[in-house]
Every structure is written in C-alpha cells, then in structure tokens.
Design brief:
Blueprint: H1 11-24, E1 31-34, E2 47-53, E3 71-77, E4 80-86, H2 97-100, H3 102-110, E5 114-123, E6 133-141, H4 142-145, H5 172-184, E7 191-198, H6 207-215, E8 220-222, H7 226-234, E9 238-248, H8 261-288
Parallel strand pairs: 1-4, 1-5, 5-9, 6-7, 7-8
Antiparallel strand pairs: 2-3, 3-4, 5-8, 6-9
The structure holds ligand LQZ7MJT6 and hypoxanthine.
The ligand O=P(O)(O)O[C@@H]1C[C@H](O)[C@@H](CO)O1 binds next to β5 and α8.
C-alpha cells in the first residue's frame, strides 16, 4: 500500500541501531539534543564523552552540510546523561523525510524522554534582530501541506498512534523554564518566542515568499526541526526547541541584503556561548524540577 515507505526505518531497524549504540556506551541518556547549523558547540559541553561518527553507526544517514559535524555524542551535563546530535539531516540533502527523522526514534529507543532541538533561522517578525533567540511555541510545517509528513506510511503502534495530536507539540512548561532561565542569565533583551516555519530549502526565500509566510503567522523561517518534532511527539517524547535568528529574511524590494550560509554560521559563532549556557542551565533545572 505504501511502496518503500518504511524500508530501512522500521521498529526493528531503529532497535538494531539503538542496541548497537547501547552496547558501546554505559551512558543511558534521558535528554536528547539536536544541534542546528553552526551550533554544534553544544555537544562539546558534555562531560565523559563517548562519541561516534555517523558513518560508523549502522543505518545512520551522513551529514553533508557545512556546520554539521556528523557526530553522535553521549555524555553528561551536570551529571545528567545526554545524547547530542552534532549535525542534523535536512530534506534538501536528498534523504527521504523518514530518514532525516530516524534519529528521533533511535533517541526514543535509547531511553530519551525529552528532546531539545536548536536551529538557525531567518527572522520574519520585524521586531526580531539578528542574534535573537526564539523559543519555538508552534510551527508551520509547509512540506506537510503537500503530503511530505514523516509519519506517512504504515503506522507502527509501538512508536505511537496513527493520528497524533500536534496542538501540544512544544512543551509549555519547558518554554516557561527557558524564559525563567533566560531572564536569570540576563538574556531578556534577546530572548523571544514565536512560530517557526519549515520549508524544504535549500534555496532561501524570495521576497514574496517571506512576506507570505509572515502574513501566515510565522515569526522565523528555516529548513528543519518540524519533521523531527512530529516524530518525537508521535513516540511520546517531550519537545523543546529554539531558533537562533541568524539573519533577517529579506522582505523589501529595495533591500541590498542577501541571505547566505556564511552569515548563518557567523551569527551562530557569535551567540554560541549564550545558547549553550541557556540549554545547559535548563537541563540542570529539568532534573531539579523532575521535568524529564
Ligand atoms: O539545521 P538548521 O535548521 O539549523 O540549518 C539551517 C537551515 C539550512 O540548513 C541552513 C541555512 O543556512 O541553516
Ligand atoms: O533565512 C533563512 N531561511 C531559511 N532557512 C534559514 N536558515 C537560516 N536562515 C534561514
């Protein structure tokens, strides 16, 4: 009925990968972290690291994008066992959507309960500035509008239900925790919240597209995260996600600005330290508050 749709992404395939990883490390992560473009430094915050190159992990895709190292790092953050993807996969790399989201199911089978995702995104909200950090409260999954949803294909009830709810995709307590922690750390001036819009990429948006997405209610636009969130929620993990506003989407025909990946990586470098501190402090507090 769904030719090829589940080939290589079945429960058994995910279990093989998870069991292989569990056999190589004593760390049993309850928090899974995904690093966005230029934000891989988060993985370096982990102590007692056991790291794997994606190419050595059975059934794992390879990173092809500059700024995505392609390593899965196990370790602890202030004593809390974590696993961190230093590099994620995107639709535009040519992988089927089930493949780019496969790591979420492997996280689940490793024992992860809470997933924290970061990404680089273009700002659509005119109040946002480059360097702002947006707590994602919701998303517009544009590939899903045309049927490119990671849950397409036979449903395996061992992961989750056929028709999962997404109105509670982004955990509200974790959003509040991020706000609280951000304020305490003195990040209030650049901490925002908003709606993230996923496109397929790799071309950046035209002016008309950016204007349309803004009118539709998006505050930031990017090329990832939404599909991972859908799969993470399908299998019952709690989700928190952040966008670093690395550039302003061009919305004015008189503008000389041109979106480019170098600017994205540069802004990532400039904000990396604060982003890492925000996430690591949150992880510590999650433990303290029994969040995960
Ligand atoms: O992995 P993320 O979503 O952070 O990567 C963004 C989207 C594109 O891959 C790239 C564009 O510069 O950064
Ligand atoms: O402006 C953008 N558009 C889409 N994806 C992005 N990732 C970083 N910046 C952008």
């Amino acid at each position: 009925m769904y030719p090829e749709a589940n080939k290589g992404y079945t429960y058994e395939d995910c279990k093989t990968t998870a069991d292989w990883l569990l056999a190589q490390t004593y760390i049993r992560p309850t928090v899974g972290i995904v690093c966005g473009s230029g934000l891989g430094g988060l993985a370096d915050m982990l102590k007692d690291q056991v790291a794997f190159n994606y190419k050595d992990i059975p059934n794992f895709p390879q990173s092809t994008v500059h700024g995505h190292a392609g390593r899965l790092v196990f370790g602890t953050l202030k004593g809390r066992p974590c696993v961190c993807m230093q590099g994620r996969f995107h639709l535009y790399e040519g992988y089927p959507i089930q493949k780019i989201t496969l790591p979420m199911r492997i996280f689940k089978l490793l024992g992860v309960e809470t997933v924290i995702l970061t990404n680089a995104a273009g700002g659509l909200n005119q109040d946002f500035k480059v360097g702002d950090v947006m707590i994602i409260k919701d998303h517009l999954n544009i590939p899903g509008f045309t049927g490119n949803n990671p849950l397409t294909g036979p449903n395996d009830d061992r992961f989750g239900v056929r028709f999962p709810c997404m109105s509670d995709a982004y955990d509200r307590e974790l959003q509040q925790l991020a706000m609280d922690v951000g304020q305490e750390l003195g990040y209030g001036d650049f901490l925002r919240e908003g709606v993230y819009c996923v496109l397929g990429g790799p071309s950046f948006e035209t002016i008309a597209e950016s204007r349309m997405l803004h009118k539709l209610g998006a505050d930031a636009v990017g090329m990832s995260t939404g599909p991972e969130v859908i799969v993470a929620r399908h299998c019952g993990m709690r989700v928190f996600a952040l966008s670093l506003i690395t550039n302003q989407a061009v919305m004015d025909y008189d503008s000389e600005e041109k979106a480019n990946h170098e600017e994205v990586l540069q802004t990532g470098k400039e904000r990396a330290a604060q982003l890492e501190r925000l996430v690591t402090t949150m992880v510590t507090r999650m433990e303290h508050n029994n969040y995960a």
